Amino acid sequence: MKKEVQLLVDKGDLLPLMEAFYTIQGEGYHKGTAAYFIRIGGCDVGCHWCDVKESWNADLHPPTKTVKIVEDAKKYSDTIVVTGGEPLMWDMSILTTLLKDNGLQTHIETSGAYRVTGTWDWFCLSPKKMKLPTQEAYNMANELKVIVYNKNDFRFAEEQAAKVNKDCILYLQPEWSKRDKIVPEIVDYVMANPKWKVSLQTHKYLNIP
Predict the structure, then answer these.
(1) pTM exceeds 0.90
(2) What are the structural domain ranges in the chain?
(3) Is 43 annotated as a binding residue?
(4) Coil/strand/helix, residue 79
(5) Which of 1, 95, 129, 183 has the largest count of CB atoms under 10 Å?
(6) Domain 3-143+154-164 carries which CATH code?
(7) 69 is in an annotated binding site
């Protein structure tokens, strides 16, 4: 990447945009809500079960003018979800300022492993064992979404729940490839521990992006 381009990326004037699309939020608190998704490339957290591994290498996704990203977003929805990859690898300040200037709601889905930048109306924290969240991310979380791949993830979920703020909504979500086996275990766990809620990837059941 050319030095002048890298400087603009570092500032947040350009972002490695993987894709952007209008769909239905399938997960967590806002499931069922129409939203415009901005997927930013780049992630070094490395979840082996990640369903968007093509997002990991930021170099594969062209640096795109943040102004252009926002111009496209405002055509579709009042709710904008910034996801990845790991969006907080980049400075989100310019993106969210422009979105807010256009009266749009800013949501983020993040592992929380990097310094929080940007202004967020909704902060979905989905922590990963390989690279744990910062304290700031725990403090800001509106919802905690823990992906359950095996039984050990219930213990991890409780460890993470102990670190978020008292108003944070707690979700357990089955990893898609293990859903047939793990969903009954999640159901039993939530019934025994009702502070938790079940999150399903409903967009996959609906066969939409």
Answers:
(1) yes
(2) 3-143+154-164
(3) yes
(4) strand
(5) 95
(6) 3.20.20.70
(7) no
